[in-house]
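Hello, quick one for you while I still have it in my head. I'm working through a protein record and want to make sense of it properly. Would you mind checking whether the tokens look sensible for this chain? I owe you a coffee for this, so here goes:
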Amino acid sequence: MRSVNKVWRLRPQDASGARRLSIELKVSDVVARLLASRGLTDPQAAERFLNPVLSNFHAPATLPGVGRAAELIVEAIQTGRRIRVYGDYDADGVTGTAILVRLVEQLGGTVDFHIPHRLDDGYGLNVEAVRKAKIDGVGLLVTVDCGITAAAEADEARRLGLPLIVTDHHEFQDQLPSADAIVHPRMPGGYPFAGLSGSGVAFKLAWVVAQRISGADRVTPELREHLMDAVGLAALGLVADVVPLQDENRIFVRHGLARIASRPSLGLKALIETCKLKDAKLTAEDVGYKLAPRLNAAGRLGCALLVVELLTTKSPVKAREIAECLDGFNAQRQTIERRMATEARAMLTEGPYVDDPAIVLASPEWHQGVVGIVAGRITEQFGKPSVLIASRPNDEVSTGSGRSVPGVALHEVLKDCEDVLEGFGGHAAAAGVKVRPSRIEAFRTAFAASVTRRFPNGLPAPRLDLESEIPLAALTLPLINELEKLEPYGAENPRPRFLAAGLEVVPDSARRLGTENRHLSFRVRQGSTTVKAIAFGMGERIDELLSAGGRCSLAFVPRVNEWQGRRSVEMEVVDLQAGSDPRIE
């Protein structure tokens, strides 16, 4: 099975809409065109996008279920009952857990927390955890980033007389849990924005609790400072969870990262230092590529309880110890991921699955906590929906994780396969599965058949959207400054990608570098302008790059490279084509 070639496509340009934006908002033509290409042609909407101010947060009291949930938490604090916060093991879950734990502590309540172990407990709330909470004397159980499908667990809590609050943002199933309160942005009630992450939901609940304690919509100065710290935690969670950076999620990230940069908690300061980041200017990409992998690594390989301890500790020594531990987990995760990806690619190029329309791979050597990341890598490289399964020898049921391509709703495909699965859950782009080892082959057949029914003529080639063609001479520092006005970048607001055609690779400049020669560095020339290019993960494409005598076209993101006090623009290559005339849809 060969890597798939992407179809390059230039975004349609709304010239008149861009001119109107440029005039009314007093922004450059570059920024105006980028706003228009994102569908932001209304000047007021574009202004809110460019300037996401705190006052544009939606009123927290409008979030469905939040009033009743806040009432229960305040009552538990005032009566001295123990509150247990039960969070998911990913970065979104642990940051949301930290938000509620820190608030209850600040208000003088009795609180503890529990994060399930990915390998031992699996995802979400479970019946044993409910029973354990009752035995431990917990008076109120609050979920974060999980629980919306926990119908049986909610029934058990009700049977035991244990009040339960569910806060979540994931997809519903047919039956909602019979919890005492459900806080969810897509529950009936008309909340204006459905794209909150689990930590965002936790923040809104914390805000309403603070209002109830303050006796007014405007909270006390002390609680306002506490909530501003919580905005930073929510920003970490939602960037890590890859929710759309639109509407109030942009407010979270813009102000939350600024808060972390100016007033980081002891734990975040230690983590930022471990990552060797400059905390004076923290970007969403710093979170996505540096902080979030370390926050997630503990949940993948060890115990995510460590992350909540990092985010809530008041000890500098403990903060440094945990940050270094998370850094070690992340390095271990990277090693495991590279090995698994190499093995998966070998199965696809040397095994019997070369012509499969969709990919299902399994190995007893694979780590359950990493299969989802590797499935994403395989889907990206081969352009097909992929499910990777960690089939550990002694497990009655194996666990896998899948990633999909645009146009193939993964949860719908898995619904077609439910007869051979023990369980599944997720959404269009990503999902988890449980399958007996003896039925993996049957699942592979059913999975491929479902995709084939939807695309009898084969899956469409993945598309790479580019903003516009740009000459190398236009790659200047002022251009980068203009592009920064669209920050924060992330899901549904990607960093702009451009096309540069008719380039020539500077002779003898191309070389492979990095671990296992995975990356590619070279210089390109166009007329009298020469620019450095870096292509991460494309080391094996060096022969392709040079195959047309060094003539090439690049899809790229412009970046600033800082070295010894000097700043210059370089190209981060997203894709490449040999030859001077690129193939564009």
About this structure: Residues 364 and 392 are 5 Å apart (CA to CA). The chain has a mean pLDDT of 92.
